[in-house]
Amino acid sequence: MNVPRPHKPLLLVVDDEAANLQLLRQILQDDYALLFAKDGARALELARQERPALILLDVMMPGMSGHDACRRLKAEALTRAIPVIFVTALNDMRDELSGFEAGAVDYITKPLSPAIVRARVRTHLSLVRIDELKETRLQIVQRLGLAAEYKDNETGLHVIRMSHYARLLGVAAGMDEAQADDLLHAAPMHDVGKIGIPDRILQKPGKLDADEWAIMQTHAGIGADIIGQHAPGGMLALAHEIALSHHEKWDGSGYPRGLAGEDIPLAGRIVAVADVFDALTSARPYKRAWPVTDAVAYLQQQQGSHFDAHLVDLFVGQLPAIDAIRLRWAEKEDKHAQA
Fold first, then answer.
1. What percentage of the chain carries pLDDT values higher than 70?
2. β-sheet bridge partners, residue 109
3. Which of 9, 216, 324, 333 has the smallest count of CB within 10 Å of its CB?
4. Banded model confidence at residue 127, pLDDT cuts 50, 70, 90
């Protein structure tokens, strides 16, 4: 039986000296597929055509220098994400600084150590893989959130808009950038539990009766179960917390646990504001979109009862940025509806 060979990452090696290209071939050929160029112009051409996973780039080349080639790579959408490692005999700190300013991720000096070359290449390819996994994770989270929206007669971009509102409010409330990014990524899953609610209840055009409302309220717990329990501090742990707490109310009249005040996790309080604002300002099959002024007035009327009053004040203070997000995604939504 023929066993397929594992895919080898593609590297582009650029140096005007044939001996250096041959040395790097010997160091890397067992683990990587290799492309070679002897000048900056050819390197740019190959980078655009082949999209290598990483580029090893000499600095001192006739014509276009490595620094100039790197700046060109970083200026083009097709190639800017490809990591560049400079390989050079220059070892002055100012030379290294120039390389990093041009957009390189690392700097290897000659004479080359095979072990160092292999280690640096592995490290930076691993970082690329981590970035790809983070982006894939975010897309999966958003798509899972969208699945719940489609069951609930929601427009598909609700989860994207409200998650951007939540991030903005999180920063205003004192979150650092990493915490706010976790909130951005976790918020789209806030209503994922609606997947478990019968369509006859989710899509009922009129008011729910007491039994139906009791079933509807279970979506918070269902969502938390779908996301699962995770170690504290991660994005999925935050998503679990949000799913379980974003329908709690400041005065304790919310669900599923009847939490009140600051016993409600901050992320849940933030998502409650962002979620309701977007629901009010978006058109639905059963209602028109509220004007922003009316939606803000509603949030302010509900300060201290439904919502954390301080968070509403912070939200209102961010209205220009909030409105820019709303208009940006409303335009995309209109185009999607017309497609």
1. 86
2. 88
3. 324
4. confident
pLDDT band of 4, cuts 50, 70, 90: very low
Residue 304 half-sphere exposure toward CB, CA atoms < 13 A: 2
Task: Find out whether 285 and 173 touch, Cβ atoms under 8 Å.
Answer: no
Half-sphere exposure of 207 (CA within 13 A, CB side): 2
CA dist 188 → 167, 195, 216, 270 (Å): 11, 14, 19, 13
Q: What is the 3-state secondary structure (H, E, C) of 82-133?
A: CCEEEEECCCCHHHHHHHHHHCCCEEEECCCCHHHHHHHHHHHHHHHHHHHH
Residue with tokens 């990014």: 181
pLDDT at position 338, please?
37
CB count within 10 Å of CB 72 equals 19
Mean pLDDT on 326-330:
85
Tell me the CB-side half-sphere exposure of residue 215, using CA atoms within 13 A: 13
**Cβ–Cβ under 8 Å, residues 193 and 224:** yes
Task: Specify the pLDDT at position 280.
Answer: 94
Q: Which value, to the nearest 10 degrees, does the dihedral of the CA atoms of residues 259, 312, 292, 146 take?
A: -50
Q: d(Cα 199, Cα 190) in Å, to the nearest integer?
A: 18
Question: Residue 228 — left, alpha, or beta (φ > 0 → left; ψ -120 to 50 → alpha)?
Answer: left
pTM, 2 dp: 0.62
**Distance (Å, rounded) from C-alpha 215 to C-alpha 200?**
11
Distance CA 7, CA 298 (A): 56
CB atoms within 10 A of CB 88: 20
Length of the chain: 339
Q: For residues 300 and 307, what is the distance between their CA atoms, to the nearest angstrom?
A: 9
Average pLDDT value for the chain? 86
CA–CA dist 307, 295 (Å, integer): 13
